[in-house]
Amino acid sequence: MEDKRFNYTKLTKEKDLDVLMEEIGDARVVMLGEASHGTSEYYTWRTAISRRLIQEKGFSFVAVEGDWPECYAVNRLIKAYPNAGSKIADVLQVYRRWPTWMWANWEVAALVEWLRDHNHLKIGKEKAGFYGLDVYSLWESLDQIVNYLESIDGQAAEAARNAINCFEPFKRDPQEYARATAFVPTDCENEVIEMLQRVQSRRVYSEDPEGEFNTKQNALVAVNAEKYYRAMMRGGGDSWNVRDSHMMETLERLLEFHGPESKGIVWEHNTHIGDASYTDMAEDGMFNIGQLARERYGRDQVKLVGFGTYQGTVIAGKSWGAPMQKMDVPPAVEGSWEDILHRMSTDDKIILSRDLRHVPELQQRIGHRAIGVVYEPKYEAFGNYVPTVIPERYDAFIFFDETEAVHPLRMKSRGAKEPDLYPWNY
User: Are strands 129-134 and 9-10 parallel, antiparallel or unpaired?
Assistant: First the structure.
């Protein structure tokens, strides 16, 4: 017999998203989460929601938990900029950093194809964009800056080369750089800040309509990436906060760039988009982009949508840099949010937080599953559940009783020697 303590909407077809569209209303920012980085249904339904937001509510872009340079290559493709390439699978090969499957997968290829088709008859800022919010691409961003500026602005290019030269002794290894700066009071902070100042003070011209914004964003990424890698050696939540602060700053810059009427869609893990102040992360002094966006724009203007599953399969690695594997996701632990939803019914469903606020057990923290790119199913009960006040952390939640792994584009990854620098793998 079904246990139905609160209302929900069965999710079987795209029309069922009407209730979510109504809940989103006129919000300027919609954040769509995921409980893993390797589950097909999360990508597929975020695409369905994003299509409707762009078509029906005029959203301007999708910004994801990916690196800026790689995602900008996709942005150039979907907007048909000069020399952007034409084959989606080829352009997605830019995602060479482990974990490659996060964005180099067939589900993302379907989103990219739709965005390109949508943009075909649009002009200028009517075209929907695709951008990366993350902070990992220190060397890639520096390389792009130098390559772009060499024929345009010699002084700014020289500042960028000075920053690259400062990092050269560390052989493009963030681990080596972070460790070196932990023991010797010499780092490259001044060089990247000078480069940022030089780039920001100059007008950059390009046949790419977003070339100037792209160059300045790469400079900002380099500054914050350097700060992030140094913070990781201190431990605690400092590096997490640097990373999510950068994501929030990038989101603000994108909204400003697209104009006062612009609206943005964010795709990130639940641990980033679900308001951290309603989890145990807050006790460690950690915050996230979902919390920062609510504080910046107000709860009416920011809608946070979590995703989760009871059981299924997922793509992940046994350790940082390990080969991707298709792994079983066991049934959720007893008493967790996912277990509660499964015991109610095996329907895939949309739950609105306003329908949860009369349920006493949900007004306190309960376990809520979070699977990262590093995953060990047999140990998940000991470290993969975030204590969460569900009705406050999200505005809505989408639940799938059983899910399947995402479908990667097969490729060899790089950057696989960084395991102990990433205590957070979400």
Answer: unpaired
